[in-house]
Amino acid sequence: MSTPPTAAPAAPVLIELRDVTCGYGDRIILENVNLSVPRGKVLALMGTSGGGKTTVLRLIGRQLQPIKGQVLFDGVDIATLDAQGLHAMRRRMGMLFQFGALFTDLSVFDNVAFPLREHTNLGESMIRDLVLMKLNAVGLRGARDLLPSQVSGGMARRVALARAIALDPDLIMYDEPFAGLDPISMSVAATLIKDLNHALGVTSIVVSHDVAETFLIADHIVFVANGKIAAQGSPAEMRASDDPLVQQFVNAQTDGPVRFHYPAVSVEEDFGAGAAR
User: Fold this and answer.
1) Which residues in the chain belong to E strands, given as ranges?
2) Cα 103 from Cα 118, distance rounded (Å)
3) What's the mean pLDDT when you consider all of the chain?
4) 244 by DSSP, 3-state: which?
5) Mapping DSSP to helix (H, G, I), strand (E, B) and coil, where does residue 60 land?
6) Which of 93, 105, 156, 189 is least surrounded, with the fewest CB atoms within 10 Å of its CB?
């Protein structure tokens, strides 16, 4: 008698949020959120503006502390880390900021070299080789002597990606990597994210509103809305979801759970009040 096939073991988790509640002042952004990010995968955070996607990135980098709950990196609660431990943890993370955030007065080469000079004791000869390797990986080795103002927006985003992988991180976080890019640059950026994720064996978290490109590269989609995780699953599962919010977002519908009209009194009441004056 044949034995039934066993399920493939789940990928080990690199990032975990456990019952996390956080906010800014009295304003709660996320409430009792649980989230796991498997190693070696591309996880996309999607949802409406202001829903808490970038807040998740700030929690992971400990720019923001939870009011309640735990944020774990490689099994360690980052709230327990001292300054030295936090510094060591952040060295294992790369960040691609929205619109790149390059140093405008430094060349492409020096932008990518910056984290290596700041966080290692490597000699300039080794730094040169590493920088050229990272720039070659994003197709910009020939642009090393240019300033950020001398490259296109798409190229600047690739320089920022080379800088993000300079220290060979375990985790790369992308905040709106496709914003403001033309279709060709957007496709190049998406391909790089997926290819580098596989080639380097890193874990990636992508915050994005771009459904088409994000669904092509993500292994897992998490929809964040109203301080909660509204839905999650593979791109195929999200496309097939009957959740009204997911359907509205994926299909770019103008009305649904996210209303076109800001809450207001009835039209009759508003216009009638004006006529009564």
Assistant:
1) 13-24, 27-38, 42-46, 68-73, 76-77, 93-96, 171-175, 203-207, 220-225, 228-233
2) 14
3) 85
4) helix
5) helix
6) 105
Secondary structure class of 219 (helix, strand, coil): coil
Per the CB < 8 A criterion, the answer to whether 206 and 193 are in contact is: yes
Give residue-wise pLDDT tens across range 56-78. Answer: 999 999 988 999 999 999 999 99
Q: How many residues does the chain have?
A: 277
Output the six-digit token pair for 138.
């994003």
pLDDT band at 205 (very low <50, low <70, confident <90, very high): very high
The rounded distance, in Å, linking the Cα atoms of 179 and 54 is: 14
Domain range summary for the chain, segments of one domain joined by +: 11-92+178-247, 99-168
The answer regarding whether domain 11-92+178-247 maps to CATH 3.20.20.70 reads no
Q: Secondary structure of 169-192 in the HEC alphabet?
A: CCEEEEECCCCCCCHHHHHHHHHH
**Which tokens go with 188?**
């190049």
Task: Check if the beta carbon of residue 256 is closer than 8 Å to that of residue 248.
Answer: yes
Contacts of 254 (CB under 8 A, 6+ apart): 260
pLDDT tens-place string over residues 12-25: 889 999 999 988 88
Mean pLDDT, range 186-207, rounded to an integer: 88
Bridge-based pairing state of the strands 68-73 and 13-24: antiparallel
pTM: 0.82
CA atoms within a 13 Å half-sphere pointing along the CA-CB vector of 135? 23
Q: What is the DSSP letter of 2?
A: P
Query: Exposed, middle or buried by CB within 10 Å (0-12, 13-18, 19+), for 264?
Result: exposed
Q: How far apart are CA 193 and CA 15, in angstroms?
A: 19
* Residue tagged 């080794």 (tokens): 126
Q: What six digits make up the tokens of 112?
A: 């990518």
The span from the CA of 258 to the CA of 248, in Å, is 8
